[in-house]
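Please study the protein below:
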Amino acid sequence: MPIKSVQQILFFFLIFFYLFAGYNHFANPSFYLPIIPPYLAAWAKEINIVSGIAEILLALLLVPKYTRALAVKGIIILLIAFIPAHIYFIQKGTFTLGSFTITPLLSYVRLLIGQPILIWWVWWSSKF
């Protein structure tokens, strides 16, 4: 399969991924609220809502080619803004989030491998 086709497939999956993630902030806020660090707890509901809106809006801005570069930058900034939540995962130790058990090792993998992969995915897949 040509690289351009792979990029396009990953790009459309990226749009779906962020649309679903944004929607999930509203459909399942109990998944996101516990991962907001305690020093932001006073605004946890607002942070969850703004994050959901941002993910949906940025996913939609990926579609037109003329707004794609802005959306890519926005998603990368959002991923960087989520780093405190990943650090909080590490500080929290082992905990359950919904039906998932998050261990410190998994938290380190999410932060040190998952975040860079997501950033790369956003940047690379939008370059077709």
User: Anything to note?
Assistant: The first helix runs from residue 3 to 27. The two ends are 14 Å apart (CA to CA). The helical segments are 3-27, 29-32, 44-62, 65-81, 83-92, 104-125. Residues 3-125 form one domain.
